[in-house]
Amino acid sequence: MSTSSPAAMALAKQVGIAMFAVDTATKDTMGIEILSCEPGKAVLRMTVQELHLNGHKICHGGFIFTLADSTFAFACNSYNKVAVAAGCSIEFLKPGQLGDVLTCVGQEQALSGRHGIYDMKVTNQKGDVIAMFRGKSAQIQGTVIPE
Amino acid sequence: MSTSSPAAMALAKQVGIAMFAVDTATKDTMGIEILSCEPGKAVLRMTVQELHLNGHKICHGGFIFTLADSTFAFACNSYNKVAVAAGCSIEFLKPGQLGDVLTCVGQEQALSGRHGIYDMKVTNQKGDVIAMFRGKSAQIQGTVIPE
Amino acid sequence: MSTSSPAAMALAKQVGIAMFAVDTATKDTMGIEILSCEPGKAVLRMTVQELHLNGHKICHGGFIFTLADSTFAFACNSYNKVAVAAGCSIEFLKPGQLGDVLTCVGQEQALSGRHGIYDMKVTNQKGDVIAMFRGKSAQIQGTVIPE
Amino acid sequence: MSTSSPAAMALAKQVGIAMFAVDTATKDTMGIEILSCEPGKAVLRMTVQELHLNGHKICHGGFIFTLADSTFAFACNSYNKVAVAAGCSIEFLKPGQLGDVLTCVGQEQALSGRHGIYDMKVTNQKGDVIAMFRGKSAQIQGTVIPE
């Protein structure tokens, strides 16, 4: 259930589409897909492929971080006010195996003035929690897409 | 100046070569090079290319994390005792621009029993600090290469 | 709504009482009260007094950390299996003022084998979020109270 | 060896004295002493007393955090430009026992514009590392003592 207005929902969706279209790292290099972008929330997905594997033949932790960090960026920019990351932390719980479908749900936890806290949870196709990422954002001047 | 024995230095170098050879994510997907691997220390390098850019046309923070996380892995496994990451944090100070040569130096700060703390510092070609990453490692059973 | 059995609820409550009784730092030095201890969850409270104030005449961040860290300890030991902190991070959102009643709710987010993730949220009497703390726990051998 | 000017050294010392004098939490409640305050650096000390002990009869982690957080505050305000904490992380390596003399050395690692990174290392009287704390600071308007 969302308490956002239809206009806020539509704006968030447009912001998500615009950001994703130009994000080479997320889209092309990592092969990440965007499933939704709503006010204060985003869902991204990445299937673990050969290109993501480290020497232990599991998904490089840096790419799980990348999935979560991208989700964070979509969630905290979803109001069409440019926001930047001011800090983050990640906890790894389980490895990502080749073929795993990793879904990352990012959700705003607190927004106080220009500063926000967002939690990203990465799970695999079985529902196991792979990693939890917490990001602190700061809104700066400017909009993502023209108002 | 290193206080490590020639044998420890040689072992660390061999461990680094062996780990790097099979690390698809680091070597192939990211284009990261390894410059050195010594006891408790490693140096890796990544030139920011188009494939690393996010929607702001700067290096994706996740890839700077990946560079530091890989450096951490080489440094904490350099004794040929398998070590895993038990937690980490990163602070971003400056963006990485297209063409920037990012060097990450990882250095052990404390080793107490099986637990270690490693600091990774990412700088660009001008010496500006781009990011600082701190990792906590835990040695588990096993060796990286046969003893 | 809790899905825990009455026995698990009673055990968690007993563990909480036993831990609190001997915790000089939390109880006496900080003046923290325990409101509840349930399986995977705990609620503690601290009123900001003169003794908590730093040079800016606001609550020392270290004492907000202490409130959250204690809550974490109660929540992750609530199954009567000794658990220790393996890492934590905190984000400060608003200062605590003299007279503020700070309530910290700690809640398990994930438990995978012996490792758990707990989120602690500190709010004031107006419901403003003061800080968010995330802890990673590891269960070790032993019980808090005799089985 | 310090590369700071005598004037900068004298100013940092005065700032330290002024801040410490009004910091009830650090000075009175915790019993922390300040050993030095120099440009970008501070050293504080705390002897573990009964009042610091938690239910395991070791120093509460929150008070080790408090020692490091106070050291951070002195180090990042030492230029007499008001700086606030914008985030921090801590790793605990060993417990503090009753009677241990914990010394915390805080040192600037990077200062880029208004943002700084400071590392605090807490050791006991045997030189064992007890905890490592990293803080990110942001300078805001104002001075600690009149210019």
Architecture overview:
With 147 residues, the first copy, chain A, is of the alpha+beta class. Chain A has a single domain, classed as Hotdog Thioesterase (Thiol Ester Dehydrase, Chain A, Roll), CATH 3.10.129. The first copy, chain A, contains 3 helices and 6 strands, in the order H-H-E-E-H-E-E-E-E. Chain A has helices at residues 6-21, 24-29, 61-76; strands at 33-38, 41-47, 83-92, 101-112, 115-123, 129-139. The first copy, chain A, has a 6-stranded antiparallel β-sheet with strand order 1-2-4-5-6-3. The mean pLDDT of chain A is 95. Chains in contact: A-B, A-C, A-D, B-C, B-D, C-D. The interface between B and C is small, with 4 and 4 residues. Strand 3 (83-92) of chain C pairs antiparallel with strand 3 of chain D.
For the record, what is the CATH homologous superfamily label of chain A?
A: Hotdog Thioesterase
Report the CATH C-level class of chain A. Answer: Alpha Beta
Q: Portion of residues in helices of chain A?
A: 25-40%
Largest sheet of chain A: 6 strands, antiparallel
Mean pLDDT of chain A: 95
Strand order of the largest sheet of chain A: 1-2-4-5-6-3
Identify the biggest protein-protein contact and residues per side.
Answer: C-D, 36 and 37 residues
Query: Which ranges of chain A are low-confidence, i.e. pLDDT below 50, for 5 or more consecutive residues?
Result: none
Structurally, the number of domains of chain A stands at 1
Globally, the shape of chain A reads globular
**DSSP strand tally of chain A:** 6
Q: CATH topology of chain A, which one?
A: Thiol Ester Dehydrase, Chain A
Architecture of chain A in CATH? Roll
Q: Taking Cα atoms only, what radius of gyration of chain A do you get, to the nearest Å? A: 15 Å
Helix run count of chain A: 3
Oligomer: homotetramer
